[in-house]
Amino acid sequence: MRPKIYITRKLPDAVVTRLTEVCEVRMWEKEEEPVPRDVLEKEILDVDGLFCLLTETIDEHLLTLGTNLKIISNMAVGYNNIDIAAATEQKIMVTNTPGVLTETTADLTFALLMATARRMVEASDYLRAGSLKTWSPMQLTGQDIYGATLGIIGLGRIGEALAKRARGFDMNLYYHNRSRKPEVEKQLGIQYVEKEKLLRESDFVCVLTPYTKETENYIGAAELALMKPTAVLINTARGGIVNEEALYQALKGGQIWGAGLDVFEKEPVQTDHPLLSLPNVVALPHIGSASKNTRLKMALLAAENLIQGLQGNTPKNIVN
Ligand code: DGY
Prior knowledge:
It contains twelve helices and twelve strands. By secondary structure, the protein is an alpha/beta fold. It has two domains: 4-98 and 292-310, Rossmann fold, CATH 3.40.50.720; 102-283, NAD(P)-binding Rossmann-like Domain (Rossmann fold).
């Protein structure tokens, strides 16, 4: 009998075709709307595999309903949306999609850094609003990127790819990580520093660490207070790593200069979110990995992980 799977969002045809070769596929057909929780709770009852996105909360209750469930394939590198301990306890495999999104996410992170430092969104809005009267020496001036100090919090694959880009801008590179990486330090000319030094001395602080219990609110009021008044904070990891209320106060009060945020604690972020009212915030809707090629690669990798698990093999990207 072919294994049954449920896919929580409309996927490209090529991915559905691949999954259909092996599985009996049911899918939430809407692209711009997440599967409602009650639908997911029904669909999970008889499936062997689940293909899901970071928009679905896969908690213990849901896992208990999926009595046939053998594998959950998350189409993301981060898997904080899944209760890994509960899945492991119930002998359900969980997989993610590392590697294929590294360069694309590093591109976006560096682009966001540049857009924030040089006030690109604000400048474009200014122009379109018809506010521009003349060119002026102090108008829309931002922060220099070339030669500045970049502090990377979390030197994983994406952090390393970001450091490579920053080298091209002659940036001075710091990182802070759970463990030191002497080889990478040599290769990239990046220096390991304590968290406090990184925050005190960096012109740009990029958050790229995984979101776990340990990194929740990793950047709060105390950390923001250490940063330079000219500093820019960039977060393309997960919203919950930075305390949003503390960040709002720091940006409003001029304690730091600007922030580029691709992620928020609650997504989709609402338009009345206080951080969106600040001109010194560039806000994006979690598009770090959003290139056409990369999203297809992620979906295909997630499909292969699912198929491997359902065929009794250990998937390449198992995380538990
Ligand atoms: C991930 O993969 O975890 C990103 O946040 C979305 O691509």
